[in-house]
Structures are given as structure tokens and as C-alpha cells.
Amino acid sequence: MSHGLPSVAETAQAVRSGIQVVRAEVLPRAERAVGIARARWLFRAFRRGQGVAAYGPVSARNDGHAELGDRLTFLGGMMPTSVACYEGARLLVGNECHFNYGVSLEAWESVQIGARCMFASFVRVSDRDGQRIAPIIIEDDVWVAHGAILLPGVRIGARSVVSAGSIVSQDVPPDSLAMGNPARSMSLDLVAREATGS
Amino acid sequence: MMMLGLGPTVARLKLRRCESVGLIPTVWGRVWIHGGGEIRVGHRVVFDARMAPIELHAQKGARIVLEDDVTIEGGSSIEAQSSITVGARSRLGMWCKVLDNMYHPLRGNRHSRPQSVPLVLEEGVTVGSRSILLPGTHLQRGVSVAPGTVISRRIPAGVSVGGSPARVLRRGEAR
Amino acid sequence: MSPRETLRAFIVDTFFVDDFGDDDSFLRKGLIDSTGMMELVAFIETEFHIKLDDKELVPENLDSLSRVVAFVTRKQSLSKAS
């Protein structure tokens, strides 16, 4: 090539790599910035830590004492997530928790959630079920899978898993898997396989 | 074709992200297709998402196949990391969740992804609303699943199951 | 039928595994997953009329056919004694 202009192939290559950089680097950061800005607005009534991000619709309401930890993630989806803390209630959420879409988190008296918990879609956590109000405690590293319901007064032990669709009415000890309706817990040693995790 | 009006055309427009769409698709409401995988929709498939949107998520390299005459009701979500097949004349109720991956291991690093297990629903399967089909599910011909059931294993043809964990409610002949 | 045969028939029937030894670990061989384990527990309770405590759902009691059989026999004799 004698002239200084790049060839068509070179230009196309440059454009492609440019698009790739935008896709891989710029877009996720922009999304995160938008998420953090949204969360700042949505959770304006909450005491919250650094880097709380909301990527989808969230309806938040705080009339009591609600505290969110650092680096929480609220994912978006087909249903809005709702977080509500009513008058005189206490809602504490630990660091690095993840909330998928459609989660409904309600505190009428006290709900405590530890660090690094994960809540899948359509999980319902409420310390009032129409008959009684009792505090819910969820310890660290708990994973609550799709569609599970936690009833008032339960305590979920650290590193436990609440399986999809279960209804938890009794305490779940640490390192166990709760499953069924009403949920029964079994030791994670009995079922945790490395390969499929099922 | 003229008698059917604009419905199928609009439906086809709503399903434009699918790899292939069969004859006369019906879409009411919103179908949410994302992920970049391959989604194949057979003939006369009905998406009834008037109450809540339907989610079809196929990860890149994954595949969802909906065969002929499948009906999917609102709020259902089908998420494929490897492969999900829904057989002909099957019906998925509202708020169903169909997953072929657990997404998180039970213990250890919760952010690593476990292996996928392909999921198969054979012909004429009925799945009640709010059921959850976990990886490893294989519903054979004519199985009927009661609402709210959680399944992660093979169910032989013609059986109806229900409950959580799933129990066999009735054994019958495949229709 | 003896408990061993009943249990083996249930496992073969429900989980479609016919080729497993009495001492094979359900978990390590991938015979039964977590939902299946719950179904097994429910089956044991209804079939042998015993009540399993959540604390007893550990691998020492339930992780292979011979362990399950030993556990069931022990529970049955306990409930008869009381």
C-alpha cells in the first residue's frame, strides 16, 4: 500500500475491535453506574453502604429503621422487587447480598440478613403472616432458591441452602439443605456433590 | 391467512429474536427473549402472557426447542444453559420455572457455575402453575404435573405427580 | 418383603438405576440427588411407620442401601421397644 489511508479491511478491523472494547469494558461500567444512581434514588430513605446497585424495578419503602450493607445487587426482571420496612420495624441487610427479581422482603418487627446471602426470584421473606409477627434471622452465606417462602420466626443457619419452592416454617441449622412443604432440613454432606451441585 | 388478521404477523415480530418460528404463532402480551442462544419455535405455538411476561433465556451456545402446539402461560420462565426441549402439545401453566442449571453450587464458591443437565419434556405433558422443573428433569409422554410441584428426576410416561418433594399421585396409561 | 428388598425396589422404580451395590454411596455415584433424597425419606416414613428427625438426615444413616437398611431396622426396634 503506497497511500497513507488504511484499507477497508483495516478500518473494519479497527471498528470491530472498538465495538468489542465498548461491549466488554464501557457498557458494563455504564450499567453499573446507572444501577448505583438508581439505587441511590430508590433507597433514599434507607441507611445504606457503598456501591448498592439496582438494575431493575424496585419498590422500596422505609418507615422504620432499615440498613443496607455494602455492594448489594438488585437484579431486574419481569417482576419488580419490593423491600419494605414498616413503622417501628428493623431491617438489616449485610454486605454483598444478591437479590434477583420478584423478591419480596417485608419487615414488621425485625428481619436480619447476614453477609453474602443470595435470594433467587420470587422469594418471599416476611415476618408477619396475618396471624403472628416473629423476627426472622438469616445468617451469612445463605442461598434461598427460586420461589421459597420463609415464614415468621425462622432462623436460617450459616451456609445453608433453602431449596426451590420450599416453605420454611422451622429453624434450619447451619450447613444444611431445607426442602419441601413444610420444609425439612438435611445435612449438606448428604447431598452436596461437586459436579452438578444438585 | 387473511382471515387471521395481523395477529400472526405481530407475533412473529415479537418473536423476531428466535432462530425459527413455525406457522401461525400466537403471542398475547410480552415475551422477553434474551441471552443470545438458539430458540426454535414450532407451529401454532401459543404464548399467553397477558397477566405477566414470559421469559425465554438461552445462553450463548444453548438451545430451547418448543415443538408444535405448545402453550405457555404468563409468568413462566425457561432458562437454558445447555438445552431444553418442550414436546408437542405440551402445556406450561402460569409462573412455571424451567431451569437446566442450578446456577450456584450448594457449597463452596457460590459464584462458580455447576454443570448443566439437559432437560426434556416429551409430548403431551401438562405442567401446573408455579411448578419448578430443576436440572435433570425428564417428563415422559403424557405426564401431568400438579401445581406447585418441584421435580428433578425422570417421571415415567402417563404418571401424574404432585407435591414437594414430588410424589406419584396416580399411574396411568400414556394418552 | 424384607426392608432391603422394599427399599431396593423403591430406588430402582423411582430413580431408574438398576445397577448399584448395597454399599455404593448414593451421593458419590450420583444415584440420588437432593430432591430424590427427600423422596426417599418420605418413603421410609410412610412405608415403615417411623418418624425421622431432621438431625438423623446425615450420610452415616442414609448414604448407601446397607446404611439405610441398618438405620431403618435400628429405628424399628427402638420404636417397638418404647
In short:
Chain A has 2 helices and 20 strands.
Radius of gyration of chain B: 16 Å
* CATH domain class of chain C: Mainly Alpha
Helix/strand-derived category of chain B reads: mainly beta
How many domains of chain B?
Answer: 1
Average pLDDT level of chain B:
90
Radius of gyration of chain C: 12 Å
Instruction: Quote the beta fraction of chain C.
Output: under 5%
Helix proportion of chain C: 55-70%
Q: How would you sum up the global shape of chain B?
A: globular
Estimate the helix proportion of chain B, in percent.
under 10%
Number of helices of chain C: 4
Structural class of chain C: mainly alpha
Q: Which series of helices and strands of chain C comes N to C? A: HHHH
- Determine the N-to-C terminus distance of chain C: 24 Å
- Unreliable segments of 5+ consecutive residues of chain C: none
The largest β sheet of chain B comes out as: 12 strands, mixed
Q: Could you spell the SSE succession of chain B in H and E letters?
A: HEEEEEEEEEEEEEEEEEEE
Give the largest interface: A-B, 31 and 30 residues
Q: Would you tell me which CATH topology of chain C applies?
A: Non-ribosomal Peptide Synthetase Peptidyl Carrier Protein, Chain A
3D structure, described in words:
Chain C: It comes from Corallococcus sicarius. Chain C: InterPro entries: ACP-like_sf, PP-bd_ACP. Chain C: Residues 1-76 form the Carrier domain. Chain C: This is Acyl carrier protein. Chain A is of the alpha/beta class. Chain A has one domain: UDP N-Acetylglucosamine Acyltransferase, domain 1 (3 Solenoid), CATH 2.160.10. Chain A has helices at residues 8-42, 188-191; strands at residues 47-48, 53-54, 58-62, 65-68, 73-74, 81-85, 90-93, 98-99, 104-107, 110-113, 118-119, 124-126, 136-138, 143-144, 149-150, 155-156, 161-162, 167-168, 176-179, 184-187. Chain A has an 8-stranded mixed beta sheet. In chain A, strands 1-4-7-10-13-16 form a 6-stranded parallel beta sheet, with no helix packed on it. A 6-stranded parallel beta sheet of chain A has the order 3-6-9-12-15-18, with no helix packed on it. In chain A, a hairpin with a 4-residue loop joins β19 and β20 (184-187). The model of chain A has no long low-confidence stretch (mean pLDDT 90). Helix content of chain B is 5%, strand content 40%. In chain B, a hairpin with a 4-residue loop joins β18 and β19. Chain C has one domain (3-81): ACP-like (Non-ribosomal Peptide Synthetase Peptidyl Carrier Protein, Chain A, Orthogonal Bundle), CATH 1.10.1200.10. In chain C, α1 packs antiparallel against α2 and α1 (3-15) packs across α4 (65-81). The A-B interface holds A 77-79, 116, 118, 121-122, 141, 143, 146-147, 159, 161, 163-166, 175, 177, 179-181, 188, 191-198 and B 32, 52-53, 55, 75, 77, 95, 97, 99, 102, 104-108, 110, 114-115, 117, 130, 132, 134-136, 148, 150, 152, 163-165.
